[in-house]
Amino acid sequence: ECWVQPTAERSWRAYQSPHNAFMGFTAASPVLGFLSYLSESIIERADAAHIAPQMIGPKLLKALNNLAQFTLVPEAGAVSPELLTEWVGDAGPATACYEQATRPPLALVNLCSSLTLSEEAVQRAEQYVSRHGA
Length: 134
Prior knowledge:
This protein folds into two domains: 1-22 and 73-134, no CATH class; 23-70. Helix content is 41%, strand content 12%. The protein is built from five helices and four strands; from the N terminus they run ββααβααβα. It has helices at residues 31-45, 58-68, 81-87, 93-100, 119-132, and strands at 2-6, 12-16, 76-78, 108-110. A hairpin with a 5-residue loop joins β1 and β2. The longest helix is centred in the first third of the chain and has 15 residues, at 31-45.
């Protein structure tokens, strides 16, 4: 993914890392079984009141990718709410930051509104899908 968000200094930064929006495995790959085992282990030991939802998704995959160097598919990714707002409206600093990352066009997108499901977020997602297809 190429996650674009504002920084504390009021500039924009693109974070490039693996994301669980799309994952594929061969039948011979031990990765899926290991991810399942590790995810269950983390959840069993975690304090439910203090675990981030991303802990068993992007954060875990980023840590494992630093060790294992997974084959990544840059055409699959996640779009931050700020970037989606610009993509369905007028381009601005989030779009400029994303474009500087020089990534291929996205073929699969996670619109990342599941934690902030507001009517506005739903409308933005619908606008994006109507413009770019599902």
